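To close the chapter, one final illustration. This time we ask the reader to focus less on the individual chains and more on the assembly as a whole: which components sit near each other, and how the overall shape emerges from the parts.
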Amino acid sequence: MDLNVFIKDVGELSVDSGHSAAELAKRYGKGPKVVVAMKKNGELVDLSTPLDAGDEIEWVHADTDTGRSILRHSTAHVLAQAVTRLWPGAHYAIGPAIDEGFYYDFELPGSAHFEEKDLEEIETEMRKVIAEGQSFERKAYSFEDGLEIFSDQPFKVEIIKGVASQSEDSSTASEEGVSQAGITVYANSSGFVDLCRGPHVPSTSYLGHFKLTRISGAYWRGDEKRPQLQRIYGTAWESKAALEGYLKMLEEAAKRDHRKLGLELDLFHFPPEIGSGLPVFHPKGALLRYLMEEFSRKAHLRAGYEFAWTPHLAKENLFNISGHLQWYKDGMFPPMELEGSTYYMKPMNCPMHILIYQSRARSYRELPLRLFEFGTVYRYERSGTLHGLARVRGLTQDDSHIFCAKDQLATEVERLIRFVLALLGAFGLTNFEAEVATRPEKYIGSDEDWEVATASLIEALDNIGVAYKIAPGEGAFYAPKIDVHLTDAIGRRWQVSTLQVDLQEPQRFDLGYTSQDNTSETPYMLHRALFGSVERFMAILIEHYAGALPAWLSPTQVVVLPVSEGSMSYAKAVSKAAKGIGARSHVDEAREPLGARIRRAKMDKVPFVIVVGEEDEKAGTVGVNRRGSSAPERGVALAAFLEELSSEVKEPELVGFSYDD
RNA sequence: GCCGACGUAGCUCAGCUGGAAGAGCAGGCGACUUGUAAUCGUCAGGUCGUGGGUUCGAGUCCCACCGUCGGCUCCA
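The assembled structure is written out below.
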């Protein structure tokens, strides 16, 4: 019997009802095994799903996001099968596709752990499964049958029971093949069965371009209090070329690692003698910090901020009033006893800025009062979370607390968002996403205050037209916040700026100001950091620019190389002229061949490497080597070079922010 | 903090199943006087992360701690 189906990009076909979509896909898709699944009337399903008359079919090709995600999910199943073959009795938990790969969580018999060398053996076993060309067959069962099938798989049982009793988050469970109606499983022709929603590729022979990448522990359901499972990560692609391209990209990303570049460019290091997560900045790194901070300080002054300076520690009562000892103690360094008092390193600057506000009576005429400080705070970060400059235990926030009246709140938040975007933009970072983090489980203050504060943040974002997502429960204990995430040149996401609307702390400290009507009012307080932390921001800049910082931030901007000693005095004159227009320049004397000196300067990522010889001296010219170009430009008039240099080394302007607002 | 891996000269790394600590780069000194990504020679550099243990003998095996890396959890 024939039936008509419509296939996207192919057209209407009359097909034998005995034909499977998989067969059609081989004939009408881009090629054998390139179609991994299909959308049948808009629904993503297996190729084995029977076709009905009038169906509209769209092939899902392996080289699309959806296609890859199916490949990865199926590869994860193969991983689970391989592990259960090698470790009989292993329990498998969940194994989803993730960005760029997949993972699967296991519990091995006898609390065994995977070791790195196991990966190779597992890969080999996976290749066997793939070579066997096992089919993936979808089956639906009732909850009762599901519990029976997975009776020796406690994690699967927990997932099924969770949904059956409706006590679990059903969205997670449906990913795993459980719905209110029952469960779906995929059985491979080898007898391996996994709980899964699908779809999958028709057969394991569709797979093969994969690599297991790492192992780690992972808590069951992401909960620290539950057992820790053994996770294996892998990546899978539609072709050998795509897999190799991805692995190559990882290598390139590793070259940008700020920890590696920080060492190579002699910027900073973490002496074990000082302690984990506590960096020291070498001259070039300290210069970079200085440049970042000075730029920021000047921008803040012009934007109506006033500077504050506060100590690094305080007596415990301050943090009792602020609530930090009640809500944030886990994040603080342990106390110090002195002269009968208990001191703590500050984990945040806000209580100290509040004391400045509180130092005398305040009038509405002073508001908004914007206190700004590069405030160094200390936080106890668990050892496993430390990560170069991006996650440290001693950090300096470009921190400000803005005290304002309720009716100034909306304007102030909007102004702040513009200021953030302009400042980050000046550093060449323009790919942002804002997140509104709402009330967490542990919080202080009334629900109403939280609602007002959260609404003011959302309203400001809407007014400016910045795209944002809501991050439920991610707020600080005292305030909802807008976090700005940015994506760097290689697609990594970082959290930088944070902006929080807080009524709690002003209340806890009993802050007030006298209004126009001579009443006493409680100010709102905005907490905000734009870099986030100077350390993390530096890490982001280094990775974003792969160490080749914009000229205005480069520790060395110009190196002048005399071809031979005879050109030394001219080289010095050129370097002096560069310094004269405010560039950071020095001469690398002719003790070594030119090539060696060029190489060193290039490896130091100096924006301008200037070569001068006899010919240049006679003609008043220089040879210019711009960073990023391998072709030197000879015979450039010194004056012309200096003019170019002077615009290159100039600090950027804030675009899109008016200081006079 | 948890799981796994790792820690040898300033850096990058060799060092086999336990049997006299190595190389390249960087650094010092000397020579070379250089027109576009490594000039040559020479010297110096390490209680093999720290502390215990096993052994006739430990960089190598075991334990603990410190630190780093990849994740989990947490976060600027």
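The longest strand of chain A covers residues 394-404. Chain A has a mean pLDDT of 91. With these observations in hand, you are ready for the problems at the end of the chapter.
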